[in-house]
Specification:
alpha+beta, two-stranded parallel sheet, 3 helices, about 30% helix
Length: about 80
């Protein structure tokens, strides 16, 4: 779910946009994902994914948005386009 080698991804490829799973079942949860983004990456924008699709997983990105304060979190609306 979270591991320190994630820092190597940032060191080698320096991604500018992060798409992070936040559903908390089968993936990272909101808090863990926000810690990974803060400690291991320097994203210009972060897009949460893998939430709100099945009853067993978290249904909104609100907890991630709150936990990732200080980061540019982009929560896309279903069916809408967006710029990052």
């Amino acid at each position: 779910d979270i591991f320190s080698d994630m820092a190597l991804i940032n060191e080698i490829w320096a991604p500018q946009i992060g798409i992070v799973p936040i559903g908390d079942r089968f993936t990272m949860g909101a808090r863990t994902a926000s810690i990974a983004c803060e400690r291991f990456f320097k994203f210009k924008s972060v897009i949460p994914c893998h939430y709100g699709t099945f009853p067993i997983i978290d249904q909104s990105a609100d907890a991630f948005v709150a936990a990732a304060s200080g980061q540019n979190v982009v929560v896309p609306k279903v069916g809408a386009s967006f710029d990052v």
